[in-house]
Amino acid sequence: MSEGSRVFERVAEELERLSKLSRLEARGTLRFALREAGFLPKNVSPRSMIVVLEKTLPPLLLKRGVRDAGTICYQIGILVRETMGMESSEGETPERVFARMGRPTIPPSSPGRSSMVPDVTRTPTGRLSAVPPPEKKPGF
Amino acid sequence: MKPFTLIVLVVFGLVTAAVAVRLLGLAARTRKAPELLLGLSMLLPLVGYSIQVSSAVTRGGTPAPLAVEIGGLVVDTGFLTVAVFVWLVFRREEIWAQVLSFLLVIVGLAMPVVNHVVPWSNGLPSALWPRAVLRTICYGWAAVEALRYAALMRKRVRFGLAEPIVADRFVLWGVGHLCATLMLDGLTAGGALHVQQSRFADVFLVGGAAFGVPAMLAIGLSFFPPVAYVRYVERRLGAGEAS
To answer: Alpha-carbon distance B201 to A79, whole Å?
Structure first.
């Protein structure tokens, strides 16, 4: 029985295969990386996973002696983008619910950044990304 | 009733009413359950407590039993909608949360029966303390889930995956419900002591009301944040955002 979202399960499998970590180690490290970014296995989207692969997972893999941590995460990131897309697969999350309830008239504090709606269109940055980032779609 | 307690209760009621109107208006537009549940959770306790307080004021301090019954049921319904909201929004797929919500609803609906079947003692409704426990569990659960999610959201803000003001809203909502719980427990204890003409009644009434101040500030800010507050939150939480 899977413990996480589709993207978590897929990334865990690839991580285990590419890093030669055991299943338990790979999944545990991935879970820890997700927690560092504020996610749980069951509620991580492909877009958020990309950021985890770029920011929090590589240092953790290096600590566990995985030498090519950066390359592995980069490859898995490409796989996620190509096979799972960047659309959020989450349903009615607490974040979306609470974002709706805020005051709608506050202007964004900087151009292109809404202060009231979760920026689901924000493209994760990353020096590891060779694949061009997807086009920015209009937000809510 | 001490003036401080009365003022806090009136202002708390006004803030709650404003939030309820906003949420119910939003629910009418979005047709989504969370807004409706949250709006009802604000409105119904306000209506229920107003029934009881009005009766107490017109009867020289002790509400009529019928007002206690009807008001209590309306208040309980409001608290139970909080529990259902928490289950649906935070723990929708968790069986234990579904069971807990169901049990709370069953217990809540049983309170009027308890009041009728179990004799009142010293002028106090027999369901007074079970109701206080039920309401504390509902609001306490909301506070725990909101604050837990707030911790996750703060981490997401660091990586640019969440908006600071939305992350802050979870904190405010959690703190607001925590303080509201303490306020209501204090006022319940104070009311019970008042009926028994205890000299400690005012201590609990004033103490409970004191928690109402941070409660109304937190709930008000979470739904009606001034622009200056939004900018402050963005500076404070966004400052740690990873580049």
So the answer is: 66
Smallest CA–CA distance from A95 into chain B, residue: B166
Global pTM value = 0.82
In a domain, A95, yes or no: yes
Per the DSSP assignment, residues forming a β-bridge with A110 are A113
ipTM of the complex: 0.87
pLDDT at A104: 57
Best interface-test mutation with B: which of A42, A90, A95 has the largest number of B CBs within 10 A?
Answer: A95
Q: Contacts of residue A107 in chain B, CB cutoff 8 Å?
A: 227
Instruction: Give the total number of structural domains in chain A.
Output: 1
Q: How far is B225 from chain A (nearest CA, A)?
A: 7
Q: Which domains does chain B have, with CATH numbers?
A: 3-238 (1.20.1070)
Which residue in the set B30, B90, B153 is minimally distant from A100, CB to CB? B30
CA pseudo-torsion sign B189, B192, B196, B199: positive
Angle at B49 between CA B11 and CA B70, to 5 degrees: 160
The string of pLDDT tens digits covering residues B69-110 is 888 899 999 999 999 999 999 999 899 999 999 999 999 988
Looking at residue A117, the DSSP 8-state letter turns out to be S
| Residue A33, domain extent | 6-100
| Assigned domain for A120 exists | no
Kindly report, residue by residue over B175-184, the tens digit of the pLDDT.
999 999 999 8
- CB contact under 8 Å between B165 and A116, yes or no, is yes
